[in-house]
Amino acid sequence: MTDEIPENEGAGRRKLPGAGLAQGLATTFKTMVTKSHTRQYPDVAPELPPRTRGVIALIEENCTSCMLCARECPDWCIYIDSHKETIPAPTAGGRERSRNVLDRFAIDFSLCMYCGICIEVCPFDALEWSPEFEYAEYDIREMLHEKPRLGQWVESVPPPPALDDAAEDPKEISLAQKAAAKKQAALDAAAQQEGTADGDA
Amino acid sequence: MSSLSWWLEVALRIVVIFAAFLVVPLVVGQMEHKAMAHMQGRLGPMEAGGFHGWAQLIADGVKFAQKESVVPDAADRTVFQIAPAVALIPYLLALLVIPIGPGTQVGVALDLGLFFALAVMGLAVIGPLMAGWSSGNKYSLLGGLRSAAQLMAYELPMLLSAASVAMAAGTLSLPGILDAWHWYWLPWQLIGGFVFFTAGLAELQRPPFDMPVADSELIFGAFTEYTGLRFALFLLAEYAGIVVLCLLTSVLYLGGWHGPFAEQHLGWVWTLVKTFLLAFVVIWLRVSYPRLRADQLQKFAWTVLIPLSLAQLAITGVVRVL
């Protein structure tokens, strides 16, 4: 009100007295009638992006106990125990096979820094991001999620995004199609050969 | 028998006014919570009471009542303890004489109603001054003295602009002023209404005129040392003051119970609508504008509001003579 502020705003455009005051009122009124930014979180679930890094889920069947994830983990929060079992030979006189059996798979989420490297390196897609995030505990030791708990998160893992229209088919499909085409070709060839044989007779 | 019904009527009037005195300021306070929040992109209280936090101020009141009431060693005990009452009771008294509807819908139809209301509103500012002086704290003292300086500066334009309405109506009685009111008083008394409302805001120490309680420099001005229920009473006094100021402004300048239709039956609704609209403006101004400096406050009163109110007096006089 009192001090003369040098009029250096705008390119010589003179404003009506009180225009700034009216502008202030307009700004607050506009904010009042637009939607507020507050999220009512515990009452209203947040809308998370589909690939949210909430918690890491384990698809146990895919795990071969290869330890890649445990070794790549920057803060060593993955614990894996496994033992070797031998499977008797499927046919008589055949060779016995051995395979790894997963005894323990645990991720300590009190150490995890959610970098996702374990998920990146898993060659068999046994680890996936789940968007679940409500697993706070009163005791830090309970942040160590063992195999069954890691398995529970699988339900909430979203399906992978659809491929682009112009993309190649997934490997499973293209391989199956190739095999089917080969078999069909073989059948056709056999049928043709039979036909020519008939003609000769 | 007639004496009994007279007593009943008096009791009823007192009960109604006391209830309004306790409830309407809380409604304004809740409106401030919500309107201010939305103006800042927030939601405001949402939990207390369930539905959009409607019981927030009741919860606040319960909290204040539970707190210890501390009187500092250096304080002047008696003055310190009665200051909240001095701040609050004048607004209750002012409510008595303000008509909310035509005819007998007024606590006391006092012939000197306008004079009485302005006198007790001026008295209310003694509360912060007493609080500031008796707290034994330099921040409180500074706040109290700033209150006093502000009162000195803003009482004059307020009285001058109110005098203009009294001149126009030819009476000091508030129901009398409303009986004389015509719609063309709106443009006629426009300047006076602006001056009265602005000066009233300054007397209530509402932002942008809240220099006496400037929290960034004076903690909370005269109320710094107060705790518990006494602090809550000061806050209640502020909101009661808003209610009284908005009621008076709507009665003097916006026609009170006059409205486009149903004046005789629903006059009190018009009064309340105008009052709450003005209360919204009070909140709106608080959110929109930064605080004025002490020297800006004084200069605004003496160089803008007082000349404007004198001009309003001159306009009123000229129109009356014509």
Residue fraction in strands of chain A: 15-25%
Ranges of chain B with pLDDT <50 over ≥5 residues?
none
Q: What is the domain tally of chain B?
A: 1
The geometry of chain B reads as globular
Average predicted local confidence, pLDDT of chain B: 86
Q: How would you characterize the largest beta sheet of chain A?
A: 3 strands, antiparallel
Strand content of chain B: under 5%
Describe the structure.
- The complex is a heterodimer of chains A (201) and B (322).
- By secondary structure, chain A is of the alpha+beta class.
- Chain A contains five helices and five strands; from the N terminus they run αβαββαββαα.
- In chain A, strands 2-3-5 form a three-stranded antiparallel beta sheet. In chain A, strands 1-4 form a two-stranded antiparallel sheet.
- Chain B is mostly helical and 322 residues long.
- Chain B has one domain.
- Chain B is 72% helix and 0% strand.
- The chains are: A alpha+beta (201), B mainly alpha (322).
- At the A-B interface, helix 1 of A face helix 1, helix 12 and helix 13 of B.
